[in-house]
Amino acid sequence: MLQEHNCSIVRSDHFTDKTCWMLFLRICFTGATTEVHRDLHKALQVQAKKFQMHYMLEQAEQRKNIAILVSRNSHCLYDLLIRHKQGELKANISIVLSNHPELRDIADFFGIPFRCIAQPDGSEQDKKRRMEDILEDAYREFNLDLFVLARYMQILSDDFCQRHSDHTINIHHSFLPAFIGGRAYHKAFERGVKVIGATAHYTTASLDDGPIIEQDVRRISHSDSVKDMVREGRDLERVVLARAVRWHLENRVIIHENKTIVFI
Amino acid sequence: MLQEHNCSIVRSDHFTDKTCWMLFLRICFTGATTEVHRDLHKALQVQAKKFQMHYMLEQAEQRKNIAILVSRNSHCLYDLLIRHKQGELKANISIVLSNHPELRDIADFFGIPFRCIAQPDGSEQDKKRRMEDILEDAYREFNLDLFVLARYMQILSDDFCQRHSDHTINIHHSFLPAFIGGRAYHKAFERGVKVIGATAHYTTASLDDGPIIEQDVRRISHSDSVKDMVREGRDLERVVLARAVRWHLENRVIIHENKTIVFI
Amino acid sequence: MLQEHNCSIVRSDHFTDKTCWMLFLRICFTGATTEVHRDLHKALQVQAKKFQMHYMLEQAEQRKNIAILVSRNSHCLYDLLIRHKQGELKANISIVLSNHPELRDIADFFGIPFRCIAQPDGSEQDKKRRMEDILEDAYREFNLDLFVLARYMQILSDDFCQRHSDHTINIHHSFLPAFIGGRAYHKAFERGVKVIGATAHYTTASLDDGPIIEQDVRRISHSDSVKDMVREGRDLERVVLARAVRWHLENRVIIHENKTIVFI
Amino acid sequence: MLQEHNCSIVRSDHFTDKTCWMLFLRICFTGATTEVHRDLHKALQVQAKKFQMHYMLEQAEQRKNIAILVSRNSHCLYDLLIRHKQGELKANISIVLSNHPELRDIADFFGIPFRCIAQPDGSEQDKKRRMEDILEDAYREFNLDLFVLARYMQILSDDFCQRHSDHTINIHHSFLPAFIGGRAYHKAFERGVKVIGATAHYTTASLDDGPIIEQDVRRISHSDSVKDMVREGRDLERVVLARAVRWHLENRVIIHENKTIVFI
């Protein structure tokens, strides 16, 4: 099919999941005009129906629109904005959204709009609902493709997660499934582990239980305090989150049930 | 005190635990005759009483007696016996104890006595009790200093753990506290983690919850099956266990509550 | 072509080298009878000629014949024999060849023939020639597919390298291209590096300069002596060599000029 | 001595270099008033003379003055300024010096003075001399304790190196001693290595040959282009440089001949 249209495959990846005998393919090709693209879409639709297959056809040069959600911790925000400026992340960073005003200056410096979504009044549940309404508004306004939770520190509602699960990436400050929830470094310190980690995953309604995209770790010793772990952890978190976001933006990640296939 | 006896410090390590303001010291010195050793013991006893201090005075050249406990998996047994033969582990391996006869040939090849402790008859509890009686007998017979559970695959009784906790090292096939208990690689596969690990720890009555001595990890991907993880895990397990055993033998590990201080 | 013969692709890998615009493909498929295999060979020959393409068609279940070359260091030999016994390495280990008699017992224990190729008399050049003649004899006698230099400690002649370069794997005890040649850990110690490594590569006439298959490293510190490095290095060497050998046996490695493409 | 002055040791490290039988000690203590500090200085001077010993007595809370030297690459500059702002680096960043004007905005944003030292006219040697004169002026003006070459891309003169060797830290984009000099990622790509690295070291007159403080590596594969290596390398460089600078600022590094002792 690609051959007929004079397209050249520059890379292809293939994975057969032997637990369910499903086949996952990622094919990168060049030479597709808009017309070819439309024809391929049609042809794939037919094939997909015939073989009970899912497909996605994307143009690599088409930049995704992303929103970065933060609270008060700046390290992941800095990191993503710097990488974006250096051309590592092929995306439009449409907006930075935060439940605190502190990081506005950073967004300003990099020329990215910043919106504080803090809700001063109301019950916790009410405030959460109104904050998520703002997220939903931004989603429509900027035609967002991806939410990046760059140490956002808020648990999203089940409703929100269900709607946005496959395009919301969170960074958790432990090697999941160890140390789910808050105060992960404190828990690691108390358990006396010799390795700390960070995990980037898609968010689901079940806390810290979504499909894992990337994890990395660092050795620590008895002499490392919680403060030392937090410092080392910052290095882990930013690298792990950035990789996950980059792979997502480059359409390298396929979610299948509660796991990911990542064609690096 | 050491100076008076013409001893030279060749290494010292020092750690202040700021959560409880306890001080941990390890001092290596040369030049102590048997007489000096005895005098130091006396002097330390007095000091220890005065300052509510614990101390241990060991002779580095004094080899500890160890028993290796195995089941059917051979990789950790091979590894320990090879390292022992190459002079990496300064210890007498007094005996290999197993609840299965399969690994006898390996012990034979390395010239280490092998004892099968399998109990064909009786209730599970009864069999466990009798097996642990044999372990206790070996403990006395060989004047053992350390039990190494090299993939022993049996859960020890609370009684046994309480008596031997600070000189029984287990290797667990996950980065604890993730994936406690059996089938750790299966659980890792199901969770879709991107990193697998192994943990060496002192055994306590609470399963896989004892003080951690060493951990290490390896990256995996979506394409790794449970079988692949088991293979990669073998490399992790043997290295992590060997490090923990070596450090214990060299008196580098101090247990404090449910953690370890490891002076590497 | 595969479809016509009712073969199913279970995995495919693809790499386009953009420096020379060459395409490298590895396709694993099931369902090929002997007849299909023969037909595919014919068809591929025609295609290969037409497109100036190289191809290799192998049966995964066909075990390669390998010879392991050693000197006095046993750790890599043990490691390969244990992995072989555990089913990690799908190959026939036809013979262990050594310029020293010390490791015979190990080969015996694992039931692998051992041949000492030491030459007591003659000039160095003469001895080398005669030793390599024995290697050549073994190559024919056992229909060898691979020489594994498991710390062989002898430099092979240019002639030998040229004949066997693409099926001779060596393990070098540094992260090449640092510390080429002998005494690599001594050189690492003198330079004061904070990381040591090991490299598995195909041998070429130019010392330690052949295509690299795999490398790995470990952190060290100022307190590690050469002896400590040697000990840590053994762990690196055996893992790195085993991976390279396994990948070669599974036809995952393609040599292109002085580099490798490794489809892991 | 410390006991007499009511000082408490909170940490001590000890290393005996067995190649030269020299002893290296680092002792951290609390409770020293200015008077005690002065007394200790005097006492140590006497002892140092007596035992041919070198010593350094520093106040941990005394912040060192540092200058960051850059060219056009921003990643290490960003990283150091962010860490400084987050309190990871206990120092005064007195000035950013650059042979290009591009990074001025970054220094401005973080409120650090920026000085462009580019010399438009003159011979190469002449320009270098005048640039180094500006560095020397800054050294005196700000009472500098440390030059950090954060991808400065200029080779310093032998004279400059000799004067400032033990307080000038450079980040090199390879695991030294592999790939000395420029274009290290290109060289790594051409050699086909499977691991890339970065090295922080004190600068000496001999290019990339000074005492190594820290190194780290990352796995790469055949599919990584030079551009991919540069991207991955940025992550390595900034982490490795930041660790080396932090350790230097915390007086954890002792230079001995062409090596470092790092008490982490």
UniProtKB/TrEMBL annotation, chains A, B, C, D:
Annotated protein name in UniProt: Formyl transferase N-terminal domain-containing protein
Domain Formyl transferase N-terminal, residue spans: 64-245
Alphabetical list of CDD domains matching this protein: FMT_core_Formyl-FH4-Hydrolase_C
BP GO terms, sorted: 'de novo' IMP biosynthetic process; one-carbon metabolic process
Keywords, ordered alphabetically: Hydrolase, One-carbon metabolism
Superkingdom of the organism of origin: Eukaryota
Gene Ontology molecular function: any one: formyltetrahydrofolate deformylase activity
